[in-house]
Design goal:
The complex is a heterodimer of chains A (83) and B (513). Chain A has 83 residues and is an alpha+beta fold. Helix content of chain A is 60%, strand content 16%. Chain A has a two-stranded antiparallel ribbon with strand order 1-2. The longest helix of chain A is centred in the middle third of the chain and has 23 residues, at 37-59. Chain B is α/β, with parallel strands linked by helices and 513 residues long. Chain B has 14 helices and 14 strands. Chain B is rod-shaped. The chains are: A alpha+beta (83), B alpha/beta (513). The A-B interface holds A 15-17, 20, 23-24, 26-27, 30-31, 33, 35, 37, 40-41, 43-44, 47-48, 51, 54-55, 57-58, 60-70, 75, 77, 80, 82-83 and B 133-135, 137, 140, 145, 150-151, 154, 157, 161-169, 183, 187-188, 190-191, 262, 265-266, 268-269, 272-273, 275-277, 279-280, 282-284, 287, 509.
Chain lengths: 83, 513
């Protein structure tokens, strides 16, 4: 597993908020300057991975709308239809 | 028997009786609204009742406009109006001209008391408020399953950051409502959501009352999940609003506060990436510039680039070479002038005089030597003569003297003068040659100078500039070769092939080794 593959796997587990924070941190680091070419390219590649991850979350229109109920049998959820 | 009245006549008489009795005219009646209906005409019909009785009431649209609240079922009111009879039915009703809410005083008193107590306990403390998650993936909602609240939240959130919505249905008004709200909050907190909205639409103080109950306030306070309250309208503040981590004016507002707009997030992502790209590009540009330098050092082009760079400083060097060649030349010219002066007639005669003196010297020395030699020979001859014959000796001496005279005869002053003329001619030719040699030297110096100039010309900064390089100068003309000599904001001149551009230094980035 290359470093980048490993990073991709890490990002896949990240929350949207964490990804955005990480992205902004990386951009800051890159903008500060003073990093060599290898590190710059690595930062950029990571930024792309994070952006793609964030976009995937944003584009996922599949949100669930459910209702939750507590019955004698325990907690139960079911899809909610609201007109 | 009197003629019987018709029913209508009776009702009319009773109606007139009621109308003329001040006891039932323009009076205040207190009671609770029930069986409320609102006709399309804008009239309201309801029953006003108390513990033991009830009366039909009518609030006509014209009178409704004077009432500053929406009449609702179970609402306790004070109604102002008069008793009247509905002739067609023969039933009496109370015609409401104006209406006030009653019972508010007690409720309000309870509200203020609870608010002060909970505030004293620190339930409203801003420091205790939890921060809302920036990007919640799952939102819990505690409200009525059928009300507008859940509908508004679902609709508003559609265009925003995608989050699941989980409703914990609750009764939001009336008896037992507070308990369902409390269990909804606790259920969602246990189940695990990122944020909870607790809310209902606007209503009377009684309607909103569950949100002013202590149990709800405490459930909100104890909840580990951040809570946004969305109760009533902008102006209604419930105790739930004070305890909640964030108060939204409306349910729609709650959704907007919790979920950022999707397009806004997208543009922030794009901004971040654009910044990353720009930063990376600037790193690459800087690297490329360094590579160019390295590349030049390692490639045949290096020489030309090197020369180009050196050409920049050749201006100076050229000046020095020029001066030194010129000073060499002028020295030679000076020496040449000196030589020429010696070659001049005056110089020559001076020279001849000294040579004449030297010749005179030589002649004198020769004479002495000859005389000496002759004396020695004479004495030697005399010895020989004495040994051979005096006559032969004398003869011998005579012939030798002749030979000697023949040999040294030229050493006479006349001969010496003639000799000097020869010397002078030789000197003249010598000096002529010396002079032409000097000229030759001068000429070859010039031609070397010319070829050096030609060589220099190819290294001339102007030629270099023809290839697209520029010279950066301070306005005072000093050539800048290092960014460390520059200051941000300083004016600089960029001299290119065909002119000069005035510029200002905006940013200085020093290459790192």
């Amino acid at each position: 597993m290359t470093d980048m593959e490993q990073y991709r796997a890490e990002v896949a587990e990240m929350t949207f908020e964490k990804s955005m924070e990480e992205l902004e941190r990386l951009v800051d680091e890159l903008e500060q300057g003073g990093v060599d070419l290898d590190r710059s390219l690595e930062i950029y590649e990571r930024a792309v991975v994070l952006r793609d991850h964030c976009r995937a979350i944003l584009d996922d229109g599949q949100r669930r709308i459910q209702k939750i109920m507590e019955t004698a049998d325990g907690v139960r959820t079911e899809d909610l239809r609201v007109e | 028997m009197e003629e019987p009245l018709t029913v209508t006549q009776l009702n009319t008489r009773v109606r007139a009786l009621l109308s003329s009795t001040p006891d039932v005219r323009d009076i205040w009646v207190s009671g609770e609204i029930s069986n409320l209906t609102r006709a399309s005409s804008g009239h309201y019909y309801f029953v006003l009742k108390d513990a033991t009785g009830e009366v039909r009431c009518a609030l006509f649209a014209r009178a409704r406009s004077r009432v500053d609240f929406e009449p609702r079922e179970n609402m306790k009111v004070l109604a102002f109006g008069s008793a009247d009879l509905y002739i067609q039915r023969g039933s009496y009703q109370f015609i409401v001209e104006n209406m006030r809410r009653s019972g508010i005083g007690e409720l309000y008193q309870a509200y203020v008391e609870l608010k002060n107590r909970l505030e004293g306990e620190g339930l409203f403390d801003p420091a205790r408020k939890k921060t809302l998650p920036k990007y919640p993936r799952r939102i819990g909602v505690v409200t009525s399953e059928t009300g507008a609240v859940i509908h508004d939240i679902i609709t508003t959130s559609a265009s925003r950051f995608p989050a699941d919505i989980i409703l914990a249905p609750a009764q939001v008004q009336g008896e037992g409502a507070a308990a369902t709200i409390v269990s909804g909050i606790r259920l969602l907190d246990r189940f695990g959501v990122d944020v909870i909205i607790v809310g209902r639409g606007g209503g009377s103080l009684e309607d909103l009352w569950p949100f002013n109950e202590e149990s709800v306030a405490r459930a909100i306070f104890e909840c580990s999940t951040p809570i946004v309250s969305a109760v009533g309208h902008e102006t209604d503040f419930t105790i739930a609003d004070f305890v909640a981590d964030v108060r939204a004016p409306t349910p729609t507002g709650a959704a907007a506060i919790i979920l950022r707009d999707r397009a806004e997030i997208r543009s922030q992502l794009n901004r971040d990436m654009a910044n990353a790209e720009r930063a990376l590009r600037s790193v690459l540009d800087r690297m490329r510039a360094s590579f160019d330098v390295l590349d030049a050092r390692l490639s045949p082009e290096r020489a030309s680039r090197d020369l180009d760079l050196k050409g920049m400083s050749l201006d100076d060097w050229w000046g020095r070479v020029d001066r030194s060649v010129r000073s060499g030349l002028s020295e030679r010219e000076h020496r040449l002038a000196l030589l020429s002066a010696r070659v001049s007639v005056a110089g020559a005669s001076q020279d001849i005089d000294s040579r004449r003196r030297a010749l005179d010297d030589i002649v004198e020395r020769i004479r002495r030597a000859v005389a000496d030699g002759m004396a020695k020979r004479a004495s030697g001859l005399a010895v020989l003569d004495a040994r051979v014959s005096p006559v032969a000796a004398v003869r011998d001496i005579e012939s030798r003297r002749t030979r000697l005279e023949a040999t040294y005869g030229r050493a006479s002053p006349v001969d010496a003068a003639r000799d000097l003329r020869d010397h002078r001619a030789r000197l003249d030719s010598l000096f002529a040659r010396a002079s032409s040699a000097s000229l030759e030297t001068y000429r070859s110096s010039s031609s070397r100078l010319e070829s050096a100039s030609a060589g220099l010309a190819s290294l001339n900064p102007t030629r270099v500039m023809e290839r697209g390089y520029g010279i950066i100068l301070r306005p005072d003309g000093q050539v800048l070769t290092s960014v460390s000599d520059m200051l941000v904001g300083e004016k600089i001149d960029i001299r290119l092939r065909d002119g000069t551009a005035r510029a200002a230094v905006r940013e200085i980035t020093e290459d790192r080794e």
